[in-house]
Design goal:
Helix content is 41%, strand content 13%. The protein is built from twelve helices and nine strands.
Length: 307
């Protein structure tokens, strides 16, 4: 993974298929204790949005690599008082070795990365959530032993997770189906980008029919129906999204060995039933654990960590 040293990860489309597979293989080896890179570097976390899994998994990953973490809470740093992001980037670039930023606008990531030489990681934006999907793909690979040729169906809002799933599945040769209400489709530009990446090796489908979307799929995936910043619309979305709930009936239409994923936090009884979430086909807790391993592999690769 030497080719990744010093680079940014703002979108999954920044990676090649071989680099995605390399990250997944490295994450699996690190999880199994077969390799243990040492990286005494400093990671900065600049999070404008609430976080549990992303914040904790990045922190633990950096500590386990032998490094340190600084939580740059906007409420207690000058960026929260209006300091231009490009100025903050220039300064932090001289203190830190790598940055993970969780924000609203994708442009904020682009701006920071433009003005800093250190690697910048998208820890979630309204457009994409690439680190989540690396963990998702690791979980699917652990379950089925392979990725190419499998079918993943995402049901719900065409949000940042849907966008990164479209790109990530296309990169590894998985068929991806996104089923949403008509007014909540993923961005057409992302769909076209995923189709270009797939280049006929796999299928990229956007539909409004949840039952057709899940037929014979090996992976069913869902997310909350109202993302951070959309809480005011949550109640009004429930009747619109109800047909897309991952429940026992919908799961029965998938492949008999299908697994269920959710990026969390979950609203049980809304986008997923309690029975499915706690059922035998759920891999949600393995998926959550794999945030740690996937991000540790990513940090080690971007920092050029040695064994």
């Amino acid at each position: 993974m030497e080719a990744m040293k010093g680079r940014d990860l703002l979108s999954l489309a920044d990676l090649t298929p071989d680099e995605v597979q390399g990250l997944l293989d490295l994450a699996g080896q690190m999880k199994a204790g077969k390799v243990a890179p040492h990286c005494p570097k400093v990671l900065g976390l600049l999070f404008y949005k609430a976080s549990t899994r992303t914040r904790v998994s990045f922190s633990v990953a950096m500590y386990q690599l032998g490094g340190q973490v600084l939580d740059l809470n906007p409420n207690v740093t000058q960026v929260g008082r209006g300091e231009p992001l490009e100025d903050t980037a220039r300064v932090l670039d001289r203190y830190l070795d790598i940055m993970a930023i969780r924000t609203f606008e994708q442009q904020d990531l682009e701006t920071f990365a433009h003005h800093a030489q250190i690697p910048v990681i998208n820890a979630l934006s309204d457009l994409e959530h690439p680190c989540q999907i690396l963990a998702d793909l690791l979980t699917v690979q652990e379950t089925f032993g392979t990725l190419a040729g499998l079918t993943l169906t995402y049901l719900g809002d065409g949000n940042n997770v849907a966008h990164s799933l479209l790109l990530g599945c296309a990169l590894v040769g998985m068929n991806v189906r996104v089923a949403t209400p008509p007014e909540y489709k993923p961005l057409p530009a992302i769909v076209e980008q995923a189709k270009a990446i797939a280049a006929g090796r796999s299928e990229v489908t956007v539909t409004h029919d949840p039952e057709t979307a899940v037929k014979a799929a090996q992976v069913l995936y869902t997310d909350v129906w109202a993302s951070m910043g959309q809480e005011a619309d949550a109640a009004s979305r429930i009747p619109i999204f109800q047909p897309y709930q991952v429940n026992e009936s919908l799961l029965s239409l998938a492949n008999p060995k299908a697994i269920v994923l959710h990026c969390l936090p979950a609203h049980r009884g809304e986008e997923i039933t309690d029975g499915v979430m706690e059922g035998e086909q759920s891999k949600i807790w393995d998926q959550a654990e794999n945030r740690l391993h996937a991000q540790k592999a990513l940090l080690a690769s971007l920092l050029g960590a040695g064994a």
